[in-house]
Amino acid sequence: MSVKKLKKIKSPGTDNIPAELIKTGGTALIKELHKLISAIWRKEELPNECKTSIIVPIYKKGDTSDCNN
After folding, report:
1. From the centroid of its chain, how far is CA 61?
2. In the Cβ-directed half-sphere of 56, how many Cα atoms lie within 13 Å?
3. Distance of alpha carbon 67 from alpha carbon 7, whole angstroms
4. First to last CA, the chain
5. HEC secondary structure over the chain
6. What pLDDT sits at residue 4?
7. CA nearest neighbour of 6 among 69, 52, 56, 43
8. What digits encode the pLDDT tens for the residues 7-56?
9. To bridge 19 with a disulfide, which of 6, 35, 47, 69 should be the other Cys (CB 3.0-4.6 Å)?
């Protein structure tokens, strides 16, 4: 869902990976990203390469300024 919402023609983040590349990767890339994120979650340790990443929260319905959403 988040990959589909990525905007085209935007500057890449600190990883220098443009959104177009992630979107073009399709299901195969999404599955690999899921494996990576799941491994990070299980180990409860963030790799050094990810410590300068930009994390984009995905809100539920309601006020986006409310942390409970």
Report:
1. 19
2. 7
3. 24
4. 17
5. CHHHHCCCCCCCCCCCCCHHHHHHCHHHHHHHHHHHHHHHHHHCCCCHHHCCCCCCCCCCCCCCCCCCC
6. 80
7. 56
8. 877 777 777 888 888 888 888 988 998 998 899 999 988 888 777 766 77
9. 6
